[in-house]
Amino acid sequence: MFDFDALINCFGMASCAVNQLTSGLIIGMLLFLVASGLTLIFGVLNVINFAHGTFYMVGAYFAFSTYLFTESYLLSAFVGALGAGIFGIFFERVLISKVYGQDILMQLLVCYAFILITDDLVKLIWGTDYIAMGIPDEFRLAPFRIFGGYVPPLYAFLIILSLVIGILTILLISKTRFGSIVRAAAENSPMVSALGIRVPLYFALLFGLGCALAGIAGALAAPVRSLTPGMGFGILIESFIVTVIGGMGSIPGALIAAIILGLTRSIGSVGFPLFVDGLMFLIMAIVLIFKPTGLFVKGSPK
Amino acid sequence: MKNYKNKIKRRSFIKVAGLGMATTALTGFPNILKAANKPIKVGVTTILSGRVAILGQTVLSGMKVAVDEINNAGGIDGRKIEVISRDSKAKPDEAARLTRELVNNEGCEVLLNCEASGATFAVNEVARDIKKFCIHCISETSSLTADPKNRVPWVFRAARQGIHDAVGGGIFASEIAKKNNLKKFATAAPDYAYGRANTAEFMEYLKLFSPGINVTTQTWPKIFQPDYTENITALLNAKPDALYTCLWGGDLVAFIDQASLYGLFDQFQSFAVNLGDLPILTAIKKIPKDVYGGARYHKDIPDTQANEDWYNKYMAGSDVLPTNWSWEADTGMRFLIDALKKTGGDTDPMKLAKVTAGNKIKSPFGVDGTMTIRGEDHTLVNYVIAYGKTITKDPYLANIQQSNWKDIYVHEKDWKKRKKYI
Description:
heterodimer, A: mainly alpha, globular, B: alpha/beta, Rossmann fold, seven-stranded mixed sheet, five-stranded parallel sheet, 16 helices, 49% helix, 18% strand, disordered N terminus
């Protein structure tokens, strides 16, 4: 099951090391975008958004349709994020806000119903067929060669863009008035309401932001991942692992955890191809045993 | 005396007539009446949701071609064929449950099972248990019919079989390997029964026909995995001479798109057995050139008027292009219809089995315009197996070569002996 020779061999060669490290980063960064939305919503609203993968799917489909008309990758990504964000606000206002503070089972049921309904809507609008958006012409370039390894220009772009979006989100939550209000409302919403601030509006916007992060990940990945109804499910499970390892509510935690998982996947494919998923869950189990709050959250577990 | 005689005769007549009517009433007569009015219900379970839902759709459109033909011609002795389909969501337990329901609640008299391998094995046991005539139309796993343990006297397969493709593909790939001196092979296959069995069988025959080949790297992505980056880089690191993959459906589309970013197809020769299905070829935005692929269903293979006609009839009733599953479902339905014609609409499983074993029908997908369900192992033979090379425009596959069934029969027999099936 474990092939340590192959692993040592790989890291003895610069080309192999470059390939695996960059592939780990690209897997990790897209996962980070999805997981950061999940952790943000949990951290502030204390809601586990089981329907988060749906917004990843919605973002990808919106981006696909926009790309058909405009052939602009960046505009498609923007529309994907915006569409997922607005859809998220709708979901928050109409459905999930009705079960805030209720039993987790209730939240789970509402989310599950929403996943099924949205999957069916996607089938009605875009069909059951798998769709490929195709790689935008501006990124149809020969891969960069770094120490003999291959780095596709699109992936280099996605790594940088994801990092920028992640940093902007952290700044938005920690440094702006919007961020201060939602953090304050998370701690004590009656008090914030008493100050004349419309807390539900801020909660809805924050929920929309979280969904937009999932949406932009779906939209950015659309050129290389085939689109199908139900595509959000796989990424949801990995996002949960990231959130548990990084700590519920911590965006920097999600970043580190997503990179750890990305590297586990990429290095694992060389050294232990049959135990990649097993190792991801093992890391999660170890974190849960020794630091149940996750790597980046202090205090007692929620 | 005369009158007495007449009296007796009349009484006898009444008795005999009464008895006759009672007998007919209890046995055949209402059945004849009922049969004349009622359609023959065919129960079908297939995958109609999830990432491969499109394949289930093309199953129903495929068999519709055969059903429309017979129904427009008046049915079987006046009885029309009615397909009742259910979505198994690719789950074996669901497929088994729905199959029982189709028979018990919907009154289906015969079954066409259109499931992938996992669920097919489950339905196979249900058909054995409830004793209903059944044709499997999709599963390619060789042991389904080759292994006597799995065989049921009234169950047949009208689909490709892995071992046939492995021999045909192995011969095809070995010639290319010899010509281009390809020695080091890498594989990328979905991590479940089909992916593992298919890869093992293909490599076994490739090595047999072209000794000196070895497998240096194998990567096993999960089925429906969104991202193949780590698998692709693992393949690049291994620097093989050639790659074999049996990824299929949307997974293959995503893999090819992602691998193209790394220029993978420029660096070594690739063989993708499941590439030649039209919805896949059209879904890939930029098909890499010179990848060898199996022709799963193609309107030009075989390039005959019958195939062209079938394609046009199919497209008239479907908004999705036909797939490998379409011709298989159509074929299953045609064997069923032919058997029903021969039994005069009788759905007794043993009577249908008797006329299906060894049956040969005309078919646009047969090598010489015919296909046979072999009597000895209840499986389909003589269908077109072909491989070609991708080109970037419609019809996407060129230089098509058909496999020779004589070779396949010889190696299939050896394989069965090795597996102790015969």
